[in-house]
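Reminder to self: tokens first, then the designed residues, so the page reads top to bottom the way the pipeline ran.
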């Protein structure tokens, strides 16, 4: 751990990434059927940071975006990130976000 020049306290070299999509596998909680306004729950291994109360793309395991989801609750516990999210908009035409 390095010492911060401004506070004199230790700093870490951990990298923080704000997720701008929610990519879920079926085993993590990707919904079988998307329904606008419905609340769903999911879990992802490790600790992750997502914006709260802001629409972000919900993508499946093939990186295809099908809807905008709004994360309403995020908890970290025992190395797992748990999400509660609501479907805000379902896209008329799904699209790839990664090739």
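Designed residues (99 positions):
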């Amino acid at each position: 751990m390095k010492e911060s020049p401004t506070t004199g306290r230790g700093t870490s070299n951990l990298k923080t990434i704000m997720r701008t999509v929610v990519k879920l596998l079926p085993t993590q909680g990707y919904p079988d059927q998307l329904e606008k306004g419905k609340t769903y729950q999911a879990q992802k291994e490790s600790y992750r940071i997502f914006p709260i109360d802001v629409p972000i793309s919900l993508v499946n395991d093939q990186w295809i975006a099908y809807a905008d989801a709004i994360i309403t609750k995020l908890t970290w516990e025992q190395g797992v990130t748990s999400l509660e999210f609501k479907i805000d908009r379902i896209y008329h035409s799904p699209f790839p976000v990664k090739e």
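The chain has a mean pLDDT of 88.
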